Amino acid sequence: MKASCTNKPALVVLLVFALSLFSSCTSKLLGGKKKKKDATTTRMAETNAPQPGLPAAEGTGIPVATPGNASTIAALTPLWTRRLNYKTLSGKAKIGLEGPDLSHELTANYRIAKDSVIWVHVTALGGIVSVARIFVTPDSFFMLNYQQKEATKLALKDVGKILPVPVKFQQLQSLFTGDPLADGTITAAESKDSSWSLKVEDPTFLQSVTYAKKDSTLAMSTLETHDPNGPRALVNYNLYELVSNRLLSTSRTVHIQNGVKAYTVEMDLANPEFDKALEYPFSIPGNYKLTSNR
After folding, report:
1. What tens digit of pLDDT does each residue of 76-111 get?
2. What is the sign, positive or negative, of the torsion defined by CA atoms of 75, 80, 81, 86?
3. What is the domain count for the chain?
4. Which of the listed residues 36, 109, 136, 229 has the most CB atoms within 10 Å of its CB?
């Protein structure tokens, strides 16, 4: 089954960091143009709290790697494996999309139960128009397309049939938590003046990840497939805020290159909340056309 262009708005919202726009399918979406931010937006995290599991330079809270690549990898592995600690996460995401054949704004209200549920309600025109509702579990993917009165029901492992790359639940969570988009094994590490750089690999993706020494936050990552001619994405984590004693990236810019086409995705999180009791309402109306591949 191929992804229809009418389904694209919802898929873009869910897979905004380099997954959905890897497809060549484009569409005319609801919403107007969004002014692009300067890609060099200053990151604003101002904490020097030591990070658990790493030796810290005296008085700085900054992890110190010993000379040699193997030693550097060993010292930075706890930083790489660190992920956001939470039970639930909810909030609103303003999403702006710009490309050679699209320009629009969407809003996504999202609710996440860690490792079990991702729920997203997508709207346009400032929340006036409902575009889609998405419900994902570790093994299932459901989507309502309100504009086309269609419902999609898939095993999560089969989402790769409507997208050009396979998708894992953890990757979808990371779109909202700001964790690295994929796991993997560190193959190289380097300590620079103000940052640490890691090369990471798994069977599907190659990643380059940069952390700021100032506060050990994720500053930038690139993601590409093993195919040298495949699509590539660059993610800048522009703004960090302290929310419930957690540093959370609340502003991110994604640059995606797919062949000769380049796209920019901006994602701004508002009112994020951790560990609240949440509900995840989802039902398929009887008059919706159902597409299923289970």
Report:
1. 999 999 999 999 999 999 988 887 777 778 888 999
2. positive
3. 1
4. 136
